[in-house]
Amino acid sequence: MKEQLIALLKSMIGCIRDLGPIILVIAFFQAAVLRQAIPNFENILIGIFLVLLGLTLFIHGLKIGLFPVGESMAYAFAKKGSVFWLLIFAFALGFTTTIAEPALIAVADKAAEVAAEGNVISDNLEVRERYAQWLRIDVAFSVGFAIVLGVFRILKGWPIHYFIIAGYILVVILTALAPKEIIGIAYDSGGVTTSTVTVPLVAALGVGLASSIKGRNPMVDGFGLIAFASLMPMIFVMVYGIITPLLFD
Amino acid sequence: MELIKHLWLVSLSTFRDVLPIVVIIFGFQYLVIRKKVPNLKRVLIGFLYVLIGLAFFLVGLDMALFPLGETMARQLTDPLFIYGSLEAVPEVFAWQDYMWVYLFAFFIGLSTTIAEPALMAVAIKAESISAGTLSAWGLRIAVAIGAAIGISLGTFRIVAGTPLPYFIIAGYIIVVIQTVFAPKFIVPLAYDSGGVTTSTVTVPLVAALGLGLASTIPGRSPLLDGFGLIAFTALFPMMTVMGYAMIAEWKVKRIKKGAST
């Protein structure tokens, strides 16, 4: 027990190195540029301590819980050999983690506001809520699809660049076609969907799969799932923006 | 006490967010794979640490970082601060006047990315998978520099008013060119880095910065222009990570050349 605490303390000191820069930047700009005292100093100190403690526990928890589970599931799926169940798992993971994502709920509500103001949809509460809800489902579906595609790519060993380049070309084409109100939201939705808990899990899954399949290089084939999970929402949201005026009048 | 209540509420919402993942993992493990989870007790403790750690982290951010960062974003972009007095505020804003904003954007981008837990996780994985040839710290700094450049360029774009798609398309073209020349092993990781950067710490601060800028500069729409900053933050790390690998490879080639002559 005691050595666990010492290990935790050591990693906490490491986290000070990770959080130091932010504190320095904010302190500098507050003191030297804005020339103001830092308000609520006591709260800030407590907050900094909580951030430190939280980060330490989080990283430790990743190493003993999330990573091993992600990897062991990858190995188990590879051993079982059932591509079908693996893909279902991949889709379920992507879809359910995204639909519950609070940041996405906030973005979807904002998007509904923008659409109502732009007269794309009628400006009443019920229509806006429906718009936001279907947008969330659209984004969640895109992430589920992205993880499925990414896992399939690992299984087949296809190089990632063709996918990404094709994806970007599609994004460029859609940008030209989509209503301009949706474009900013589409570009940002990719960033919003990859949450702090999903990212490590998906990374462990990808690397675990690539490690347990013969002929796959974990470094080259294991990564890329998150890139897909950031790219697909952009595409799916712009498509949503193009179709909805036809569906929502 | 307020703090305890806040911690409890955030823990509940974090638990609700983590619940789908837990259900799916254990559901598939027991129903599809039909095997026991190895080291179940340790894994469950790990999940508990992740939950509590994330809750503490989020509350701490809410107490210390976000209020300060958002207030600062608002104050630094306030025309009163930039021009000194109401009379000095010009009709048309010059992009040169916003230097402090670009600087702040750069450094806040640098520091929030270093603090980003999701990025730490990916970097740890990458280092262990590459058997130490890729250092986790080196990767994080490369991503942080990319995010910093991206955010400051993004704030410049909001002030200058150049349409978003031009930048994004130009950026993607550079990424494609780099992909052809970069060492193969770094490419998927570089693509992932962009998506990972825009996470818990970075997004709220960047959004506050974008909103602050877009609402104080005439002619900018907070909803259209403020959003694009996140896209910039995700784009540039791809370039810097590939650049980092290209430089490292070039260094190794030079050493080899030096050794053979």
Structure description:
With 249 residues, chain A is mostly helical. Chain A has 10 helices and no strands. In chain A, helix 3 packs antiparallel against helix 5 (125-156) and helix 5 packs antiparallel against helix 10. Chain A is flat. Chain A starts with a helix and ends with a helix. Chain B has 261 residues and is mainly α. In chain B, 82% of the residues lie in helices and 0% in strands. Chain B has 10 helices and no strands. The mean pLDDT of chain B is 84.
Strand elements of chain A, count: 0
Number of domains of chain B: 2
Structural class of chain A: mainly alpha
Mean pLDDT of chain A: 85
Question: Rough shape of chain B?
Answer: flat
Low-confidence stretches of chain A: none
Question: What's the average pLDDT of chain B?
Answer: 84
How would you summarize the topology of this molecule?
The complex is a heterodimer of chains A (249) and B (261).
Chain A: H1 2-33, H2 41-80, H3 83-99, H4 102-117, H5 125-156, H6 160-177, H7 180-193, H8 198-212, H9 218-222, H10 225-247
Helix pairs in contact in A: 1-2, 2-8, 3-5, 4-5, 4-7, 5-8, 5-10, 6-10, 7-10
Chain B: H1 2-33, H2 40-77, H3 79-83, H4 99-115, H5 117-129, H6 136-160, H7 164-181, H8 187-197, H9 202-216, H10 222-260
Helix pairs in contact in B: 1-2, 2-9, 4-6, 4-9, 5-6, 5-8, 6-9, 6-10, 7-10, 8-10, 9-10
